[in-house]
């Protein structure tokens, strides 16, 4: 009797799953889902990009995919991406519930906040305050150049050696955003700062990695002591520390004279000073952590990718250095405006962003109403995954889609051009709001360091592995960075660099 009831229950669950995963009429096609797991077993969870591209080749640029019983639509290629995120941007501007990232932020702040009044107000506030604190102006340049001096000091002390650059560039990127948010930078050796930087790097891997996908797909496992619990605990630890900084600011701030974004936010709370305000301290904590995370991982991982390719493509590095020397001449420091006279260096930086593919699946979207895409019907509440990687490597859009080659951003006259398919930070109203800061950081850091140092692949470094480590923000695999002051010998014992390794 018990066996019959159990069999009946299993049959009922399977029938319920089959009904739940039945594709609506004119819904994008896709692979047949399995019970419980949906299509999750059809992906390499360590890095699903290749599998998603293969599915796109089979089912089309717009296809469906089930995470457990939850339907999702994967968008590949430039034209479908533009239709969804630009032409019909409002329809696709929502953020999904029930994901690890949503639970971490509680849907507050700006990145994972759903489309609505709070998101609009916080995004407008973020753009305004970043601008007021000098984004695109000399004051922001000074902050970035000041941080570069700390990086240069470390590289000088390691002249002739080979170092692990991961922590170095994470430290620098994090400190730049900390100055903007908190009004001060941390010493690189500060124990909490190091724990915070490490946590951000690890959580990036977890959130879109295997354990993040399991969390999103199998809710019954969420209470178990699995690695995603570490992501939640670490996030809350940094959040508590941030709230402590806010409390200190309350005691020392002068209303109307903000020193940083915390003071700006506290001024905004007082200015609105009404029940039901969209600005409060709980929102502020998520907002600050959004900017902290977004301003650290993307920039540091792009820098690490840049130096990986510069070391293994010495002809590119040397051409950049020649252009930098000619343009800067006797100038003591680079300026962001100098980029207009450095077409090849600009092309190299953009090409590094393209191959870094730092946000391969962007941040997941959600439809806020019934809509259509490329002739398919997409119901309200459907999970939308923009495969930015497919656009950054789309063969019809790039001269060298699968190689590192700055010529992707140069015309026949050697002038810098930016193809429409260059969307490393997504497109539309929900594109990354830190893109302007990231562009300034990448240019000033790379130009300043290339002017002073030469970077080379270690003799004992083996064959370079360009395969990235997948996550919310994708990162290169660990490697060692050979560094020397320009014109002097390094630990490989030669003045020149190794031949390019393919």
Write a compact overview of the structure shown:
Heme binds at residue 432. By secondary structure, the chain is of the alpha+beta class.
Show unreliable segments: 1-20, 488-502
One letter per element, helices H and strands E, the order comes to: HHEEHHHHEHHHHHHHHHEEEEHHEEEE
**Structural class given helices, strands, pairing?**
alpha+beta
Q: How many β-strand stretches? A: 11
Subcellular location: Membrane
InterPro entries: Cyt_P450, Cyt_P450_CS, Cyt_P450_E_grp-I, Cyt_P450_sf, Cytochrome_P450_fam2
Organism: Albula goreensis
Keywords: Heme, Iron, Membrane, Metal-binding, Monooxygenase, Oxidoreductase, Signal
Structure description:
Helices cover 49% and strands 8% of the residues. The chain is built from 17 helices and 11 strands. Strands 1-2-7-4 form a 4-stranded mixed sheet. A 3-stranded antiparallel sheet has the order 3-11-8. The chain is globular, with a radius of gyration of 24 Å. The model is unreliable at 1-20 and 488-502 (pLDDT under 50). This is Cytochrome P450 2F2-like.
Keywords:
502 residues, alpha+beta, Cytochrome p450, 17 helices, 8% strand, disordered C terminus
Chain-wise SSE layout:
Elements: H1 2-20, H2 49-59, E1 62-67, E2 70-75, H3 78-87, H4 100-105, H5 117-132, H6 138-157, E3 161-163, H7 165-182, H8 191-208, H9 210-217, H10 227-252, H11 261-272, H12 281-294, H13 297-312, H14 314-328, H15 343-356, E4 365-366, E5 371-373, E6 376-378, E7 383-386, H16 388-392, H17 435-452, E8 453-456, E9 468-469, E10 475-476, E11 481-485
Parallel strand pairs: 2-7
Antiparallel strand pairs: 1-2, 3-11, 4-7, 5-6, 8-11, 9-10
Helix pairs in contact: 6-7, 6-17, 7-8, 7-12, 7-13, 8-9, 8-10, 10-12, 13-14, 13-15, 13-17
